[in-house]
Amino acid sequence: MTKKKIFSGIQPSGLITLGNYIGALRQFVEIQNEGDCTFCVVDLHALTVPQDPAALRQNVRNLAAMFIAAGIDPNKSTLIVQSHVKEHAELGWLMQCMAYMGELERMTQFKDKSEGKAAVNASLFTYPALMAADILLYDATHVPVGEDQKQHLEITRDLAQRFNSRFGETFVVPEPMIPKVGGRIMSLDDPSKKMSKSNPNEGSYIALLDEPSKVVKKVKRAVTDSENVIRYDVENKPAISNLLTIYSLVANKSIQELESQYQGVGYGTFKSDVADAVVALLEPLQSRFKELVESDELDRILLSGAEKASDFATKKMITVKERMGLIPRENLK
């Protein structure tokens, strides 16, 4: 059986929430034993909206450090910063040349992010082409995605198939890896919405760098319902179901086990235990993050990742250019 090649990236856009950890970072740690993994801090994608340069630089380091602190092992996986491998931008342009206006216009994330804005960067419109390049550059066979990212993987698959049809078999057509549990952690103040740092209510999300007292405060203030029964029922008890999901995933206990454990127990005790479980998860992660974030160790990991990824990407781009009729510089004598 052919070993999976897995690629995924996260934007360095500031705070990293518990939802990001459960829905992405935690999944990455688990799948790094399933195949050849490349994980990417996609800083070029962050430029689709205005950025403060100093803040962006720090956010890149923070996210890279958080990848390692969360359990990504640089001896098993390749960790890179997108802009450190120039072929991402180069293949991104070639994918723009393959994409159609109509399919880019249909992307729901562009519609959501551009709505109500007087001016929108062209890169926000074309960034699915760069996202496709990120994936196709490394011959990824599988891409971990949440439900809200499936559309981007579909256009990646379309572009790969279009290129292969026009120029010959060049790109692997990737398959989605969608987590069955925990792919979508909901807001603490409104369980109908995904947990997001963009929510103006800070109490709606738990940030991975929140101090223990802040975590306890946020969980205890999380909305519930009037029934005072701890039961997993997304339709009728979405808030309690969300807390059960969080508790289950951070404490590695089944939801059925938790339902049994808290039978006849009130919400106050339950929420206190949820908070304690989250704090127990975050404390060692935060400690490792602080060791890494401004360290030479992180620099060495990122440099090693960039060199390894560049070796593969350079060879891939020679093939892509030759197929399209370009003359690779490496072919000149």
Detailed description of the structure:
The chain is mainly alpha-helical and 333 residues long. Helices cover 53% and strands 7% of the residues. Helix 4 (87-96) packs across helix 7 (122-136).
Taken in chain order, the helices and strands follow as EHEHHEHHHHEHEHHHHH
Percentage of residues in helical conformation: 40-55%
- What is the gyration radius calculated from CA atoms? 21 Å
Query: What is the topology, as strand order, of the major beta sheet?
Result: 1-2-3
Q: Span from first to last CA?
A: 40 Å
Number of strands: 5
Number of helices: 13
Largest sheet entry? 3 strands, parallel
Looking at the structure, what is the overall shape?
A: globular
Average pLDDT, all residues: 93
Q: Helices and strands: which structural class?
A: mainly alpha
Topology:
Blueprint (H helix, E strand, L loop, with lengths): L3 E7 L7 H14 L3 E7 L1 H4 L6 H18 L7 E4 L5 H10 L4 H5 L2 H7 L7 H15 L5 E3 L5 H18 L7 E3 L34 H9 L17 H14 L3 H7 L5 H26 L3 H29 L9
Parallel strand pairs: 1-2, 2-3, 4-5
Concise account of the structure shown:
The chain has 13 helices and five strands.
List the defining traits of the structure above:
single chain; 333 residues; mainly alpha; 3-stranded parallel beta sheet; two-stranded parallel ribbon; 53% helix
